[in-house]
Amino acid sequence: MADAAMSGPGRRIYFRQGTVLKLVVLAILVALIVLPLLRTVLFTLQSETVTAWSDVLTGRLSTNLFYKPLGNTLIIGVIVSAFCVLIGGFLAWLVVMTNVPFRKTIGVMATLPFMIPSFAAALAWGTLFRNDRVGGQIGWLQGMGADIPDWLAWGMVPTLIVLTLHYFSLAFTIIAAALATVNSDLVEAAQIAGAKGGKILMGIILPVTTPALVAAGSLCFAGAVSNFATPALLGLPVRMQTLSTRLFGMIEVGQVSRGYVIGILLVLISGAFLWAGNRIVSGRRSYATITGKGGRAKRFDLRASRWPLFLVAVLVLMAATVVPVIVLIASSFAPSSADLFANWTLHYWIGESSPDFAQGIPGIIHNADIVRALLVTLALGCAVAVTGMTVGLLTSYTVARYREGTLSAAITQISFLPLLVPGIAFGAAYIAYLGAPIGPFPALYGTFALLVIAGTAYLLPFSVQTGRAVIQQVGGELEESARITGAGFLRRLVSITVPLAVRGLAAGGLLVFVKIIRDLSLVVLLFTPTMPVLSVVAYRYASEGFAQFANAITVIILMISIGATLIANALQTKSQPWLKN
Amino acid sequence: MKVLSTTCIGAMSILLSTAALADGHLDTMSAEDLLPLAEEEGTVTVYSFTSRIGRVEAAFEEAYPGIDLQGFDISSTEQIARLRAEAQAGVTNADVIYISDTPVVLTELLETGIIGPYVPPRIADRVPAEFQSPLLAQRLSTKVLMYNEEANPNGAPVSNLWELTTDEWNGRVIMVDPLQRGDYLDLMTEIVLRSDQMAATYEELFGEAIDLGGMATAGEKFIADLFANDLILVSSTDDVNAAVGRLGQDNPPVGFTSYSDRRDNEEEGWALQVANDVVPSPGIIFPAIVALADEPNNPAAARLVIDFLMGDESETGGPGLAPFYVAGDYVTRTDIPPHPDAVPLDDFNAWRLQPAETATIRADVGDLVLTLQ
User: Fold this and answer.
1) Which has more confidence, A574 or A300?
2) Which of A19, A405, B220, B274 has a 20 to 30 A CA-CA distance from B253?
């Protein structure tokens, strides 16, 4: 409205262009996200399925079907996201703004936990903390004579810890990127004025990084409430259910409509929380921190607390990365999971097929299925990273530049939606959506294209959100000068916004790549034998009791993820001043 | 482009209709006659609910080097979801479906025409009629009460299912969540269907008639009591196997799992044994089905695979049946001698699953389980 009021000729073009762009982005998002979900909603409203709503919300089953899992889900979401922002923020602050020892190492290590599939972390927890409640194998600690109580072995506490250790690195990535762009002028001005560290933190750094903190908190919240593997593995023995385990269970036993209803409610609840977070960010005026000028501020000198703070960081990072990786690697060599460090063999990696070993399954380098799955997975990761970041950039640019109006709000909300939809439900929705021919378009079931499209849509929140925190900080003034000198929309995007935001975009592309190659829940239904992906192959082996093959594949996924991170870091050195000495 | 695709569709429909015509003929052909057609097709895709398909694949390709068998290990529950989605998309990926979960298979896959029956003529006279119709059962599989025979050298520590609801077994009975695995929901359903026997064995153990305490049947009362006795739920049968079977335990739990998992005792360091004498029954025994996709892409090779899976003319069925000729799996062919290490089928006390009956109350039992956890 404000734009229309300023009725210069230039302004009118600006207004129209924004609207056109918004409509284009909105159309893409509707096609990618809204239509598949709408199909799910319509499914639950058919006459034979509509009773699922009353079963879930008011019937005698509702307490166990919905309300108890809801309580658990909310506890997990709130606590995990709070701790993720605290730990991720603390590490980001150490790495970006202080002179803590081994900053670089901490910086690289802090991005690793997110690349370990959460089910692997949950399994590793069990290997260490499992007590004799479930009988069978006990964990390493219990084996050493410690008496592990149920609350530490199963249920809510371990779920919270494992999920926090998984998602904090997501918070770290987002907050570190934002901290690194804090305008040094502001900090230096404060330092000259004699402000103490705490005052600078509370008065300058926290306020300008608010979008990143909120973004990190929202992403961790959404990830935690829709995570399936961890509560399923650690919660089931004490019958702790969350909405996502409930949803999975319902779809597994064929009660699809009840499952969809729970899924829809999960979307609505998380949506309410994220909407609130979004309000906090958009209520503020400007977060522009990268401008045409400014350099690096001096680092805070931690003095005597350098090493104690370093130790704290190392403890967190060891627990989140080193320990699970050791357990994973060890179990890819150990023939019996009962004794993790004995009788190691390379069979699961390089063995030929032999009828008396693992039912004739050859080691993974001789296994044609796994090799093919590896190729498909890599191709999928690259394709989704490119398509995801393209759509993500367009979306985050649009929302950041044309923040006002219902269209922008709609775009923001829609781009968040996939986060709230557990992967398996999203996969099911996509099969319903693109599984059958639509008009002149053929059915995409079983094609690479379906995996790419669904993956792009599913991970859009990550590409949008990561890009957004950075793009919001790219000062509008540069782009405005370009516009005044007559540069068109595409030109401005390519010459100014993209180069300045390239770190955020690369980080986003990286997140997307890593997330899709180790994603299980989305692809588990989209997977077809002709289009295998590594995580599903690993899951199949795990569920059939061949944990060694599963862990060996997980190690491969891990290696690719770490490799991708290192390459991305190398490409980004120029734009990563916080890693320079 | 448009012309081309129209031509394609035309060609495809002609091909499909000739395939459909040929199918009827294929059903009566012997393996020898199928072989040249199958070799022409060159490949065949199998969805299997057991990982043992890996060994079948190797054996099949050795027997028929010209045909590439692509075996995929997919749980029954997931196969059902996948096959329904594929049918909706108009795509046929699998040629052969090897699956359990019959109560759902009959209603969701057979009645909807997603899969169809095939009985190789060679063995038709050697499989009892009940295992040929409506779909061919290759063998019978189980979900039964198992115990640790190392810790209990004198036999099962339980003789009556109701003992599992007493203090002694509090927190020491383990099974897979019936809301996540269909086989276990079938087991719970069977217990409800057998409520008369459950009531009788209750009186046998406790010396008084059962007080249903608000439950409709003795079976439901049992399930409620079992859950109230801190029943432990896990997510896969291997978790049950490891918990119950691991060697060197002083006081191991008992649990419901597959009798045939006993075959892995040596490799995994387990001591699993079936509690066959428990009353009224240790659990359920149910068919493992082999069927054809509605319109398989490789109709001749698909039939050849099913023929192969039913075993050859050697004494124990040869390489096709070898992965399933283990203690705890009961091959349906009458001419194959029972496995020497297993409880003979006639002495095996597990309830025989009645798919149609189970299907009628399965969802209600699922709801009951839901209210208990």
Assistant:
1) A300
2) B220
Residues 190-209, chain B, touching A (beta carbon < 8 A) = none
User: Is there a single domain that holds both residue B161 and residue B257?
Assistant: yes
Residue B142: per-residue pLDDT: 92
Q: What is the mean pLDDT of chain A?
A: 78
Query: Which string of DSSP letters, residue by residue, matches A2-42?
Result: HHHHS--HHHHHHHHHHHHHHHHHHHHHIIIIIHHHHHHHH
Among chain A residues, the shortest Cα distance to B182 is held by A253
In DSSP terms, B254 is beta-bridged to B173
Q: Where residue B8 falls among pLDDT bands split at 50, 70, 90?
A: low
Q: Is residue B260 part of a domain?
A: yes
Q: What confidence tens digit (pLDDT) does each residue in A108-164 have?
A: 888 878 777 777 787 778 777 777 776 555 666 776 677 778 888 888 999 999 999
Give the Å distances, CA to CA, from A381 to A216, A392, A417, B91, B126: 23, 15, 21, 25, 51
- For residue A290, the domain's CATH number is 1.10.3720.10
What is the per-residue pLDDT for A350?
Answer: 75
Q: What is the pTM of this model?
A: 0.74
Cβ-based contacts of A136 with chain B (< 8 Å): 239, 241-246, 249, 252
The Cα angle at residue B101 between residues B96 and B105, in degrees rounded to 5: 60
CA-based nearest residue in chain B for residue A64:
B371
* Pairing, β B43-48 against β B68-73: parallel
| Whether the Cβ atoms of residue B192 and residue B273 lie closer than 8 Å to each other | no
B245 touches A: beta carbon within 8 Å: yes
ipTM score for this prediction? 0.71
Has residue A395 been placed in a domain? no
Judge whether A524 and A536 are in contact, CB under 8 Å.
Answer: yes
A48 to A43, A258, B301: CA distances (angstroms): 10, 12, 40
Domain limits for position A212: 49-323
- Residues B159 and B280 grouped into a single domain: yes
pLDDT tops 70 at residue B3: no
* B196 and B271 together in one domain: yes
SS3 B160: strand
Whether B258 and B131 map to the same domain: the answer is no
Domain that holds residue B89: 30-139+286-342
pLDDT tens sequence across A241-262:
898 888 877 776 667 788 888 8
In-domain check, residue A230: yes
Whether A11 is covered by a domain: the verdict is no
Strands (E), B5-135: 43-48, 68-73, 96-99, 115-116
Dihedral in degrees, nearest 10, Cα atoms A302, A303, A305, A307: 100
- Pairwise CA distance, residues A80 & A77, whole Å: 5
- At B21 the three-state DSSP class reads helix
A60 and B179 within 8 Å at the Cβ level: the answer is no
Is residue A179, in this structure, part of any structural domain at all?
yes
Residues of B in contact with A540 (CB under 8 A): 73-74
DSSP label of B64:
S
The H or E element containing residue B273 is strand B272-274
Q: How far apart are CA B65 and CA A47, in angstroms?
A: 52
Q: Same domain, yes or no, for B359 and B231?
A: yes
* Residue A462 C-alpha, separation from nearest chain B C-alpha, in angstroms: 28
**Within its chain, how far is the Cα of A4 from the centroid?**
39
Write out pLDDT tens, residues B31-65.
Answer: 889 999 999 999 999 999 887 888 898 899 999 99
pLDDT in tens, A481-499: 888 888 877 788 777 777 7
| Chain B stretch 302-341, residues whose beta carbon is closer than 8 A to a beta carbon of chain A | 323
Set of chain A residues whose Cβ sits within 8 Å of the Cβ of B54: 359-361
Q: How confident is the model at residue A561 (pLDDT cuts 50, 70, 90)?
A: confident
Number of domains in chain A: 1
Do B119 and B206 share a domain, yes or no?
A: no
Report the CATH number at residue B192. Answer: 3.40.190.10
